[in-house]
Write a structure and sequence with these properties.
The chain has about 625 residues and is α/β, with parallel strands linked by helices. About 40% of the residues lie in helices and about 20% in strands. Strand 17 (about 490) and strand 18 (about 500-505) form a beta hairpin. The longest helix is centred in the last third of the chain and has 29 residues, at about 535-565. The two termini are about 30 Å apart.
């Protein structure tokens, strides 16, 4: 079934309220958030018997609607039975949300973690309005970076002598996605040229900028725009039917599944005075998301829509508008499909597990890094976690209490397709080692282990392929000796400038020893066996050694994670031996060049998103 998630209404008001025209902002820069809101005066939260709670256009908010019974709390709803009285209000205008929050019209903020970070200087300076992040709703699965044909992986975003130009909405949710993508390749916004556009979608959105301006190399888009540019998640644009020739998904939150975290936060002063209400709000949401997930998954599996699910999707359509969700089965259901609810274990993992590299503290640090480095804030003003008793909340919500695992085995994200490794690679990096080395110490490789674990956490829907390589020199030497001895090869020229000719079937053709695929194929025929040394056996030994290296690195990373209580899904770490098949230097001339082939690659590789389970997002 086609899926068209709709995050496109979120924070479009950033552009409306900018005091500078788009072209006046330098590439890679952003206006201070305080310039968007103007001067604000902190006011007490108004107490009118009904609490205003903003929502945004996203699937995670469907559980809030369900818990509340609609925009106004109904007596038979989860929140109504808990004694809460809420009025859900549109919050896609995030700047207005912040104004209302500081001005006391609501104690709540609803956005992504990075959106809170962008507003951190405005909301975090005064202790009364310092945000307490009380709930993580979900991780996004419907946002993408689309690139032109020349950009195959995130590593390609950095090009000597020419900056890659990337279109992204000013102040929107994709700023965080772009920040994470650049960080995964160890780049910054100084390594690319960020071209900010006013809107998330439409005529002034990033997709249209990409479509009409050939100087734009990539763009950050939502799923409907991604499909319009490429034809689909795993497709490449042909130029027909509005697609852009060669356009493809460079990275997606389908794979980068822990990049965009949706949260609720409340004012610190209100939290201290109303903690029981906060507990009821969080418990009600936890109960509602269990119900919503069951309804969503039941329809996805049976393709038969229950009356309760139809009622929920109709409510979403009514609240968000038919222009946003034209159909229930495709658009409204698709909105929920791209929402990765985290549930109770996810709350515990996000807020309490110190080893969660996608948890509260790392995400806050990254949000403040983005805010200060990209010009939204002049200083670092953080948030507080809620400090809730999750066992108590489980009882209030009527859900099973279960602590999330830290090191997970046997719950994989799916196998990558080995034949498509190059096409499916999102980003890669390499470590080198000595001849015959199979042990990897933390002292020497700790930084690489940290990077691999961080990548595994952020790219929760991808495989981390640990690919061992061996140097081909010894195999090539034995191939040449065997070939000359058996008369299969003829050599001309002098040392350092040899030329080789292959004699086969009465014909002779020049053989290029640097063409490794051809060398591997010839060795596998067995034609060079029978001489003193066996190139076939040596090639197999090199393959075994490369796999042993990959497995040793995986074990070292697992031990490193356990010793530091770092969360990791070990099934994401998939060791592979490449042997001599993919050398950096195919025909080394000295030991220094040979050592460049003795390496282990870490590749973040796309896997089939249908293989994902909600449990993959719980830690």
């Amino acid at each position: 079934m086609p899926r068209l998630p709709r995050r496109f209404a979120v924070v479009t008001a950033f552009a409306v309220l900018l005091t500078l025209p788009t072209g006046a902002l330098p590439a890679g820069a952003q206006q201070l958030f305080s310039g968007l809101t103007g001067p604000l005066s902190v006011q007490p939260v108004q107490n009118r018997g009904v609490t205003n709670v903003p929502f945004i256009t996203w699937g995670g908010d469907a559980a809030t609607f369900y818990a509340n019974g609609g925009l106004d709390t109904t007596g038979d709803s989860i929140y109504g039975k808990a004694g809460l009285r809420l009025k859900l209000t549109p919050g896609d205008d995030f700047v207005q949300q912040v104004k209302d929050y500081v001005g006391g019209k609501t104690p709540f903020l609803r956005g992504t973690f990075r959106m809170l970070g962008q507003a951190s200087e405005v909301i975090g300076k005064d202790p009364r309005t310092k945000p307490v992040v009380i709930l993580q709703l979900s991780w996004s699965g419907g946002d993408h970076i689309v690139a032109r044909e020349g950009l195959r992986t995130l590593n390609d975003l950095k090009r000597p002598g020419k900056k890659v130009r990337i279109a992204c909405q000013q102040g929107g949710p994709h700023v965080g996605l772009l920040y994470d993508a650049l960080a995964a390749a160890q780049f910054t916004n100084d390594d690319v040229e960020v071209v900010f556009v006013p809107d998330l979608t439409g005529p002034k959105g990033a997709a249209e900028k990409f479509r009409t301006d050939n100087s734009i190399d990539a763009c950050c888009v939502i799923t409907p725009d991604m499909i319009g540019l490429t034809g689909g998640l795993d497709s490449k644009g042909t130029g027909a039917e509005g697609t852009v020739s060669g356009a493809h998904v460079l990275v997606s939150t389908q794979n980068m599944s822990r990049s965009i975290a949706d949260v609720y936060a409340v004012r610190s002063d209100w939290y201290k005075a109303n903690r029981p209400a906060v507990e009821k709000f969080v418990a009600g949401y936890l109960a509602a998301e269990e119900k919503v997930k069951a309804l969503r998954d039941g329809f996805e599996q049976s393709q038969r829509m229950s009356a309760d699910y139809r009622k929920l999707l109709t409510m979403c359509q009514s609240i968000f508008g038919e222009e946003v969700l034209p159909t229930l089965e495709v658009d409204a259901h698709g909105l929920l499909l791209d929402c990765r609810f985290v549930n109770l274990p996810g709350q515990i993992a996000f807020f309490e597990q110190s080893g969660n590299l996608s948890g509260f503290n790392p995400k806050m640090a990254a949000a403040l890094d983005l805010a200060t480095k990209w010009g939204y804030a002049r200083g670092r003003y953080g948030f507080d976690p809620p400090g809730l008793d999750y066992q108590k909340l489980a009882g209030m919500a009527g859900v099973a209490f279960a602590k999330p695992k830290t090191v997970v085995e046997g719950e994989g994200v799916g196998e990558f397709l080995g034949d498509d490794l190059d096409d499916d690679t999102i980003v890669s990096f390499t470590i080198e080692f000595e001849p015959n080395q199979t042990d990897f110490s933390v002292d020497r490789y700790g930084a690489e282990f940290d990077r691999a674990l961080k990548s595994a956490s952020t790219f929760g829907g991808a495989a981390v392929v640990i690919r061992g390589h061996s140097d081909p020199t010894k195999t090539l030497v034995q191939l040449v000796k065997a070939g000359l001895s058996k008369g299969i090869l003829r050599r001309t020229g002098a040392s350092g400038d040899y030329r080789y000719f292959l004699n086969a079937g009465g014909n002779s053709r020049e053989l290029d020893l640097s063409q490794m695929n051809e060398m591997v194929r010839l060795i596998e025929t067995g034609a060079f066996e029978g001489a003193a040394d066996s190139p076939q056996q040596t090639m197999q030994a090199a393959l075994n050694l490369s796999l042993a290296r990959a497995e040793a690195v995986r074990q070292a990373i697992a031990d490193y994670a356990r010793s530091r209580d770092i969360n990791v899904n070990l099934s994401q770490l998939q060791p592979v031996g490449a042997g001599i098949s993919d050398p950096v230097i195919a025909k080394p001339t000295n030991m220094a060049e040979a050592k460049q082939n003795m390496r282990v690659e870490f590749r973040i590789v796309k896997v089939n998103p249908e293989a994902l389970k909600d449990s993959d997002f719980d830690f």
